[in-house]
Write a structure and sequence with these properties.
The protein is of the alpha/beta class. It folds into 2 domains: 9-140, Hypothetical protein VC1899 like domain (Restriction endonuclease-like) (Rossmann fold); 152-234, Winged helix-like DNA-binding domain superfamily/Winged helix DNA-binding domain (Arc Repressor Mutant, subunit A, Orthogonal Bundle). It has helices at 20-28, 46-59, 75-91, 105-118, 152-164, 170-179, 191-207, 226-234, and strands at 9-14, 33-38, 64-69, 95-99, 121-130, 133-140, 168-169, 211-214, 221-224. The strands form 2 sheets. A 6-stranded mixed β-sheet has the order 3-2-1-4-5-6, sandwiched between helices. A 3-stranded antiparallel β-sheet has the order 7-9-8. Strand 1 (9-14), helix 1 and strand 2 (33-38) form a beta-alpha-beta unit. Helix 1 runs parallel beside helix 2, helix 3 (75-91) runs parallel beside helix 4 and helix 3 (75-91) packs parallel to helix 8 (226-234). The longest helix has 17 residues, at 75-91. It is elongated. 34% of the residues are buried.
């Protein structure tokens, strides 16, 4: 929960092969909580992971450190992880900041997306070396476009498929969209008109490769693609 007097400053910090680039922003930006994201305790960056823990325990004891283990090259897994953390912390009223200068390029991309779609604040720590010593310069917050693209009716199709975690027959999708008050109830318009409205919703999603429709017109099944899963997660409304 937010501390008295304001929101917690929560950081997501991927662990790579640099130590100060993780530690310095946490200290300078007065982080209250940090999620250190690493592949596993014995991966190639285990030395840096331990050094980060040691540095924070000596230099910034007030911080709460949480370790999160995830494949640093798996885009979808990182997207789910960042989404879970960001949405949970922001729902509690906390500020979420993401270090996009450490870890893999994949984690940097996910961090920027979290800023664009979920209201987190990505930052980049400039770094250099004096001899063999790592130094950290400016901490830069890049300007971001924050948006939620796609009409809400099409977003609902993706969310239904994501929640069901299986392909759906068109008839099942129609029933789900009726419960969401996107399609009219049975008897209000002709069955043919209902299917035409469904096709109008599905067409752009097929064109964007978010879904695949297999089978004949009315008996077809609607399936979410990997791109569609990512879009469904990104396009969930951010907590306010």
């Amino acid at each position: 929960m937010p501390r008295e007097g304001g929101a917690l400053r929560v950081h997501i910090s991927p662990v790579g092969f640099e130590v100060r680039r993780v530690v310095e922003p946490l200290i300078r930006l007065r982080a209250d909580r940090a999620y250190l994201v690493t592949g596993r305790p014995d991966d190639l960056a285990k030395k840096q992971w331990r050094a980060i823990h040691e540095a924070l325990s000596e230099e910034y004891k007030a911080i709460e450190v949480k370790d999160e283990y995830e494949n640093p090259w798996d885009f979808h897994a990182l997207l789910r992880l960042y989404g879970r953390i960001t949405r949970s912390e922001r729902a509690d009223g906390n500020e979420v900041l993401i270090n996009v200068s450490t870890g893999t390029k994949v984690s940097a991309m996910v961090g920027l997306l979290a800023g664009m779609f979920w209201g987190a604040s990505p930052y980049y720590a400039e770094t250099g070396y004096v001899g063999t010593s790592e130094t950290v310069g400016n901490i830069v917050f890049p300007p971001l476009l924050r948006f939620s693209v796609m009409p809400p009716q099409q977003r609902e199709v993706l969310h239904i498929l994501k929640a069901e975690a299986r392909s759906l027959r068109k008839e099942e999708m129609i029933q789900s969209l009726r419960r969401a008050e996107i399609l009219p109830e049975s008897g209000q318009i002709s069955e043919a008109s209902v299917y035409r409205r469904l096709e109008a919703l599905l067409g752009p999603l097929v064109d964007q490769r978010f879904i695949i429709v297999k089978g004949n017109r009315k008996a077809g099944r609607i399936e979410l693609t990997e791109e569609g899963r990512a879009a469904a997660l990104l396009l969930e409304p951010a907590p306010t």
